[in-house]
Amino acid sequence: MKTTSSRKLITFDWAMKRLLRSKANFEILEGFLSELLKEDIVILELLESESNKESADDKFNRVDLKVRSSIGEIIIIEVQYEREYDYLQRMLYGASRAITEHQREGEPFSSLVKVISVNILYFDLGHGSDYIYRGFTSFTGIHDNDRLQLSSRQQQLYGKEQIHHLFPEYYLLRINNFNDIAATPLDEWIYFLKNEEIKDEFKAKGLQQAKKKLSLLSLPERERAAYERYQYQLSYQASLIESNYGLGRLEGREEGYKEGKEEGEKLKALDIAIKMKLKGAAVEEIMEITGLTREDILQE
């Protein structure tokens, strides 16, 4: 009879914020990427960029992590909880920025880094029945419908066999679409990402290490309290999403909403405050969670 672990595990996004940035824990991330990309990934370093620095504000629903693999490829990993209707464009921007950040002035274009964008999504993006999508660039003939290939000299120059190996690749993991049946090692990782649980019989690379190191009980008391606050904040923000916050934001854009990110964040905080007040939360607690002033809260 198969058994499952009853140990409570922290979420992958929190692990990326706090734990997976440590070289001692690289094997967890290496295991995940190896199963996804179907090759052995060894992380050499964590690359710093403005989007990669840990924010003091743990209320953000997006986490970015950028690493360099053993063969020099740049891998961007993003975990996203909140709906963003321009998310696909933001993926393109992130991959493009990674390329330019790591291109030294005067270097030939043949030395451009390969970027792999891995996006772990906890919301519905587009229409489709699958839970893992891969996107890459190819060139197809208009008349002959043939696919353009690299010449032998180009293969030697670039060290790549196919044209799509030169361009960014994108992986979309639509976690909510997964049916909880772990038929492959990668499915075992998806199961963990969705359920925060690793079954005893799972054999995917990195998962057993994750089971040991991502235990909530193993966290120091201060870290555990911070994690619980983070999950509490996510719960309220998830309620916002379900109460048509995303649709309201889209309608606002269509009507010409241009008041900027700061005003948008305040509206979001006010929506959270209203829900907390309806649930009987104290003003001090609402102030702590939303960052609003007492006057803002009492006016609602």
In words, what does this structure look like?
The structure is a single chain. With 300 residues, the protein is of the alpha/beta class. It folds into two domains: 206 residues, no CATH class; 81 residues, no CATH class. It has eleven helices and six strands. The protein has a six-stranded mixed β-sheet with strand order 1-2-3-4-6-5, sandwiched between helices. Helix 3 links the parallel strand 3 and strand 4. Helix 9 packs antiparallel against helix 10. The longest helix is centred in the C-terminal third of the chain and has 22 residues. It starts with 11 loop residues before the first helix and ends with a helix. The N terminus is likely disordered.
Question: Which terms summarize this structure?
Answer:
300 residues, alpha/beta, 2 domains, six-stranded mixed β-sheet, 11 helices, 41% helix, globular
- Share of helix among residues? 40-55%
Distance between the termini: 55 Å
Task: Find the count of extended strands (DSSP E, 2+ residues).
Answer: 6
Radius of gyration: 22 Å
Low-pLDDT stretches are: 1-7, 55-60
**Count of DSSP helices?**
11
Strand sequence of the main sheet, in spatial order?
Answer: 1-2-3-4-6-5
H/E topology pattern: HHEEEHEEHEHHHHHHH
Strand content: 5-15%
**Structural class, from secondary structure content?**
alpha/beta
Shape: globular
Q: What's the domain count?
A: 2
Indicate the mean pLDDT. Answer: 78
Largest sheet: 6 strands, mixed
